[in-house]
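FORM 7B - TANDEM STRUCTURE REPORT

SECTION 1: FIRST PROTEIN
SEQUENCE AND TOKENS:
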Amino acid sequence: MELKIEILKAFDSLELRRKNVECRLDQLDATGFTNPEREGSWSVNQVLAHLSNAEFGTVRYIQKKMQGMNSLGQRNFSSKIRAQLLKWFLNSPVKFKMPKKMPEPTNDLSFSELKMQFDKNRAMLRELIESFPQEDLDKLIFKHPFAGRFSLHQTIVFLENHYKHHEKQIDRILVSVENRG
């Protein structure tokens, strides 16, 4: 039960991060959310759409993998090292290309629609965590496109680090758009 509590704490931390970003963005004029930092880069709405798509895809992937738990390996030293390396890379100033399997984010949704999408995704994620079998919490349930397989806890921690990585991008975009007037 202890590991499930740790996973829920990681989820709560992820959710708090999202709420803080949304609270900050709620204070701004949403009309600038579709303007990119520079030509060929993403807007705030595109970054949020990417984050939402990544979370939705992660939940769907885990739901699919839950149907074949017996074939999954256990969390091990290698997955711990890969998780730490991924965290380090996401916290570094290095920029990454989005995995080709991910849909290119668009400006089609408004900020309020994106918030509703996040609400749905997070409700699905919380339900998945709460319903996840206790005896399978150490299974390598998620496959990151570059870093390999992770347990549920490692996956939630990755999602927060991913969100934090893009939070810096959102801040850069907002400064750039504000400076252009």
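SECTION 2: SECOND PROTEIN
SEQUENCE AND TOKENS:
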Amino acid sequence: MNQTDESYAQTACIYPVILAVPKEVRSLKGRNKVMGLSRHARRALDISAVKSHVRPGSPLKDANGVPIPFEGNYWSLTHKPAFVGGVVAPIPIGIDLEEIKAVSAAMFRKIASEREWSLCSSNSCVDFFRYWTAKEAVLKAAGIGMKGLSACRIQRIADETHVTVDYKGRLFSIEHFQFHGHIAAVVDNGCRVEWTLD
């Protein structure tokens, strides 16, 4: 975190919002479904903006698909078939969510090193998705995407809801939130977090 981020984090709260996907969107197929999920995630973003006292706008992405800050505010979206999420903050931000389900041993090896897995006691599917969502949230905040996964390392597990991730020497604090068989992660960088689940 730079000095501006640190001073913001001392007093700030961020408001990640998770919304259930309506049946009519879940029933869509292909590109129509992706567009429906994206529109619904924008609703989550608008709610986060209002909670953050930011005027909702029409945030854009650059040619690489990286969100462009609007009026000095950063933003991030995530969507899965059953839930979507969005968050706005005046510092670089990232959010991710995943359904907790069984994964192969090969996926465990792909997402984290033996040293990283030694930080947790169970190496369960919940742990896998804590690591996965934490790293993806960091890569979104860094504006990189999944191509930067190999440079992302879990450094510390503070408790059931907080981990620290190192991305190329920069430390990111992550808060997790579990709900209805899913887990979400947001880059909190020392800010208080108030989750909204609707």
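SECTION 3: OBSERVATIONS ON SECOND PROTEIN
The mean pLDDT is 91.
The chain has six helices and eleven strands.

SECTION 4: SIGNATURE
Preparer initials: ____
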